[in-house]
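Page 37, continued from 36.
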């Protein structure tokens, strides 16, 4: 959420809540994955949080559907009452989730014995707090035209709509429910068409809603010491999988709309298609542009083109690294071939696709979402970028460049 959008419309705010709660749900899953021996009460606590975030996400998404289908309703007094309450509930959940995460290492022996567990929890807690900071910035800028319910900055968990703490040791403050009914629907992976046991051959189209998670081209620990095994497992198996699931869901919903002729929600599913599709495709390329035998400098035609487009390799590397380090929030830095300009360019994207450009072929993407590096590098993105250069698979990038540079549109 950025103030550059001007006053935040209800639909836009609901989109952000959906994204926000999706991230928090993933974070709860990640913690359980990091600590397979987590004591049952604390594992149950995290599962309860996953359900709370899923229900809030679904509630916000259903409200988003209604707002898109009935634009006039989104400016009614009913919405003026609904949105502040939904936003305050979402914030209260995040505050309590963050508070409980900070207490967990004090009470969970399994968690306290995991290396770097406190770093992971601090990162996840900080991500939840980030949304609260963004809200404050939007309110100060006037981007949100209404105020929160009275009592706004109360830090008590009353009304947060989340799970009760797992035991009394975490229950240092009273908790309560907001009384609002939430849909009993949670997000799940979309069943995919049966495409048989054989691997799809090159050129066969992916069935609608049939995208799958590509296997890593190396072991989880192959990129050590630059990128650690635990990060690779979570990044590939959890985060990338979520984009595959989201893409399949969006494709299936759009196919359903084509069948029924009901396109009232087309904007929502097109946005889901863009976000999750870009996330899936960039990650699929990201795994291949790294190698345990990577690093060094490119050679041959690719190096020649880098020198032509950027002056020299060092200038290219410096610009790419600086661009990656300055991406706001989560996003990417990407070396691309421009068929229109007939040269290489460096682009950045917030999330996976925002504030980037079309008509370019990605060659070398670098994921700078914090989930790509926080377990090893914490908040030191620049250190992660420096390490990443040691695993760049230049032969693969050059092969991709040689194919891409055959695309040459009329230059303008």
């Amino acid at each position: 959420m950025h103030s550059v959008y001007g006053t935040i419309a209800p639909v836009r705010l609901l989109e952000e809540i959906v994204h926000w709660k999706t991230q928090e749900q993933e974070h709860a899953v990640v913690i359980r994955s990091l600590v397979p021996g987590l004591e049952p009460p604390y594992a149950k606590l995290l599962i309860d949080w996953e359900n709370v975030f899923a229900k809030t996400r679904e509630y916000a998404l259903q409200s988003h559907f209604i707002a898109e289908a009935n634009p006039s309703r989104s400016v009614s007094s009913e919405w003026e009452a609904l949105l502040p309450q939904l936003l305050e509930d979402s914030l209260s959940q995040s505050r309590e989730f963050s508070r409980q995460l900070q207490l967990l290492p004090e009470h969970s022996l399994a968690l306290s014995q995991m290396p770097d567990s406190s770093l992971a929890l601090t990162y996840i807690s900080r991500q939840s707090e980030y949304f609260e900071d963004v809200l404050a910035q939007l309110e100060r800028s006037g981007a949100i035209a209404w105020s929160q319910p009275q009592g706004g900055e109360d830090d008590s968990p009353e009304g947060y709509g989340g799970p009760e703490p797992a035991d009394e040791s975490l229950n240092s403050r009273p908790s309560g429910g907001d009384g609002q009914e939430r849909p009993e629907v949670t997000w799940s992976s979309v069943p995919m068409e049966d495409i048989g046991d054989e691997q799809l051959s090159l050129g066969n189209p992916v069935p609608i809603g049939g995208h799958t998670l590509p296997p890593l081209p190396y072991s989880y620990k192959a990129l050590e010491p630059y990128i650690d095994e635990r990060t690779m497992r979570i990044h590939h198996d959890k985060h990338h999988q979520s984009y595959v699931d989201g893409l399949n869901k969006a494709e299936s919903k759009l196919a359903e709309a084509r069948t029924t002729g009901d396109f009232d929600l087309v904007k929502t599913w097109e946005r889901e298609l863009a976000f999750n599709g870009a996330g899936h495709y960039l990650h699929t390329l990201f795994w291949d542009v790294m190698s345990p035998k990577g690093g060094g400098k490119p050679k041959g035609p690719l190096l020649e083109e880098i020198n032509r487009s950027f002056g020299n390799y060092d200038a290219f590397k410096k610009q790419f690294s600086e661009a990656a380090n300055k991406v706001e929030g989560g996003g990417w830095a990407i070396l691309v071939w421009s068929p229109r300009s007939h040269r290489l360019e460096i682009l950045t994207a917030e999330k996976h696709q925002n504030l980037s450009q079309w008509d370019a072929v990605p060659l070398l993407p670098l994921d700078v979402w914090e989930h790509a590096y926080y377990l090893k590098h914490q908040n030191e993105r620049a250190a992660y970028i420096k390490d990443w250069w040691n695993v760049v698979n230049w032969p693969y990038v050059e092969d991709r460049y040689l194919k891409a540079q055959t695309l040459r549109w009329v230059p303008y």
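Strands lie at 331-338, 343-350, 361-367. Flag for discussion at group meeting. DSSP finds twelve helices and three strands in the chain.
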